[in-house]
Amino acid sequence: MTVDEVKKLLKIYYDIPAMIAEEWATIRHCEAEKNEITLPPVNLSGMPGGKGMTGDRTASMALKDQARFYEQEEMACQKRIADLQEKRNWLGVALGKLDPTDRYILELRYMGDQRNRKYTRRPTWKEIADKVNYSESRVKQVAGAAILRLAMMSDQIVFPGMIR
């Protein structure tokens, strides 16, 4: 994982549960829509059946593609859920290995407030430096080093269900 990917992941870390909930809502919607699809019976007489009536098996097979679309969308959602859970698990474990001050600096700069997700403005380096009693340049160094450590830790394996 690159440094930029780690920064992006830090920015969405607290939003991942909501993102997963949206994916589950999409899956539920696909299930409901898929259950609404009804295939008309095949007209074996060969006579035209009127507007909207299929007269051959090919048309019925074409209508089945709609259900296949929903199934593919559900599978894509499940893949995204698994990916989000894996990233959240990894980052939770990796952040736990950092020094508390380093984690606090990253939280202030990239992650925002966990309780208030309407976090609109990131604090400046100066504001962060005042909170942790470091100089502004030292805070930048610590944040850069912490992100680099996280990027180097990204090769480690995290088992499913290891949420911190």
Question: TL;DR?
Answer:
66% of the residues lie in helices and 0% in strands. The protein has 164 residues and is mainly alpha-helical.
Overview of this structure, please?
This protein has about 160 residues and is mainly α. It has one domain. The protein is about 65% helix and about 0% strand. The chain contains six helices and no strands. It has helices spanning about 5-10, 15-35, 55-95, 100-110, 125-130, 135-155. Helix 1 (about 5-10) crosses helix 6 (about 135-155), helix 2 runs antiparallel to helix 3 and helix 4 crosses helix 6 (about 135-155). The radius of gyration is 25 Å and the shape is elongated. The two termini are about 20 Å apart. The mean pLDDT is about 80.
How do the strands and helices of this protein lay out in sequence?
Elements: H1 3-12, H2 16-36, H3 57-96, H4 100-111, H5 125-132, H6 136-153
Helix pairs in contact: 1-4, 1-6, 2-3, 4-6, 5-6
DSSP helix fraction? 55-70%
Number of helices: 6
Please state the structural category.
mainly alpha
Q: Which blocks of ≥5 consecutive residues have pLDDT under 50?
A: none
Arithmetic mean pLDDT: 81
The outline comes out as: elongated
Total domains: 1
Strand content: under 5%
Query: What are the secondary-structure elements, in order, as H or E?
Result: HHHHHH
Radius of gyration: 25 Å
Biggest beta sheet attributes: none
Distance between the termini: 20 Å
**Beta-strand segment tally:** 0
